[in-house]
Amino acid sequence: VGPYVLVTPDETRRKQLQQSKLSFAKKELDDLERWKEEHRPGPITLVPQRLGGNESEAQVRQNQQMILMQSKYQKKHKREEYIKAKKAAEEAELLKKKAIQREKAERLEVKKRQEEMQRREMFLENQKYKTNELLNRLDVGLPKSDSCQIANPGPESTAWKRSHAYKQALRQDENRRLEEMKQEQQRKAELLEFKQKQEEEARTRAHQNEQRRVNNAFLDRLQNKTQPNNINQPGYTG
């Protein structure tokens, strides 16, 4: 560290600087006050004129009250319309979900019926196959058809006739069952088609009714907007 010189502060000089700063600030404040005084706005002079309208204070109060009542009624009407529209939208969404669930249930029911029909057909085919196999095994030990044309038929010929008649009866019974199953399936298909047609017509009518209701509400709102002063007409009871 090199040598240094310590200079004591000059109190007189410090006081002179502080006084000069204070005097300069006071001069600026005085100039601002003088400028404000010079630019102060003068008195306002207006030409006397009559204020207000041609109606009395009571009529003005009554009109204000009527306007307030009308605004309250309009707000209430808008709130009711909003609630109705929201409720209608919720009901439409619920009906749509119900229709989807109903269609799913119907498709599942149709699928179950088809599977049941397939199981019945497979069961009948299996039964038919086993019956034919049994009859074929019975026919192995029976005589031919030309050997049955003797004058006095024996017990073997009688057994062959019984087997042949039983086979024909089984075939007829199987054909009858198949025909009944086909007719039943056809009736179920027709009934399902008729039911789907009725549901489609019901959905169409519901959609038309909903559209008609929305249109009527829209026309009512238009009529209320085009006739806002109905409550001011004579005979209005509120």
UniProtKB/TrEMBL annotation:
Keywords: Coiled coil
Keyword Iron among UniProt keywords: no
InterPro entries membership: EPSTI1
Stretches for region Disordered: 197-238
Compositional bias (Basic and acidic residues): 197-213
Superkingdom of origin: Eukaryota
Coiled coil ranges: 75-125
Amino acid composition bias (Polar residues), ranges on this chain: 224-238
PANTHER family linked: EPITHELIAL-STROMAL INTERACTION PROTEIN 1
Protein name (Swiss-Prot/TrEMBL): ESIP1 protein
Naturally occurring in which organism (per UniProt): Grantiella picta
